[in-house]
């Protein structure tokens, strides 16, 4: 006798409770993926659909702590659906704080004409910003060629091909920014995790370490990048950096030491998730 999707979701949710904080959601997303239909469609028809043979394999992958986004091959961010691979961080809703902060900043100003995304990964921040500021041109850099390939593919698939330029560069190299010019909006989600941080297995064992870890205190990349912003930020522009929980005081102090007026921005959970930096006279 075949098992309905509705029945299997109950069993899968129970199993996933051991590895996930959102077991029911994971079960539903993976089932819809295995069926090749949307989650909403799957839920509407759950009592009438049979469980596909492929579901067992994707469930086992999740039980081994592999993130749902890597199993499905994509993740929603802002209003975009982005391809992701183990070469890129998985875009998270917390990072939308940077886009919201940029919208607030430019609400009473002319929109940005040039946007820079430092460490673009999947392209999430740049493409979300370009979807908001549709007359801007964007530049994104990343030290990983494979991540850049993912970002460029997302840009082309979503129709941003003429607006975005992707460059293989590392901000640890000399003269990496010499030919970039200045930008009205700079976005950055750098590595900011402490080396000894206790991360969930789905993050520690699957997402790229080079995009996660930033020295003993998690401040390594901020210490490199923030002093260089003066060569990149236009006089009336804004730079917005994502930060880890509890890093707001240290990052704001660093920004102020480099001559910027710094402001914290909270995510939906009330955690300070981003720091914006502007020239005091702007």
Rough shape? elongated
Helix fraction, binned, reads 25-40%
Q: Main beta sheet, described?
A: 7 strands, mixed
Uncertain parts = none
Give the averaged pLDDT, no decimals: 93
Rg, please? 20 Å
Which topology of the largest domain does CATH recognise? Rossmann fold
Number of strands: 9
- CATH architectural category of the largest domain: 3-Layer(aba) Sandwich
The CATH class assignment of the largest domain is: Alpha Beta
Number of discrete domains = 2
Please provide the ordered H/E string of secondary-structure elements. HHHHHEEHEHEHEEHHEHEE
Which structural class do you get from the secondary structure elements? alpha/beta
Tell me the strand percentage band: 15-25%
Query: Could you tell me how far the N terminus lies from the C terminus, measured between alpha carbons in angstroms?
Result: 69 Å
Please count the helical segments: 11
Q: Give the neighbour order of strands across the main sheet.
A: 5-4-3-6-7-9-8
Could you walk me through the main structural features you see in this protein, from its secondary elements to its overall organization?
This protein has 282 residues and is α/β, with parallel strands linked by helices. The protein has two domains: 5-64, Helicase, Ruva Protein, domain 3, CATH 1.10.8; 78-278, Rossmann fold (3-Layer(aba) Sandwich), CATH 3.40.50.150. Helix content is 34%, strand content 19%. It has eleven helices and nine strands. The chain has helices spanning 5-16, 23-35, 39-44, 55-63, 68-72, 96-105, 124-132, 145-157, 201-204, 220-225, 248-257, and strands spanning 74-77, 80-83, 114-118, 137-142, 164-168, 183-188, 233-242, 261-266, 272-278. The strands form two sheets. It has a seven-stranded mixed sheet, with helices on both faces. It has a two-stranded antiparallel sheet with strand order 1-2. The longest helix has 13 residues, at 23-35. The protein is elongated, with a radius of gyration of 20 Å.
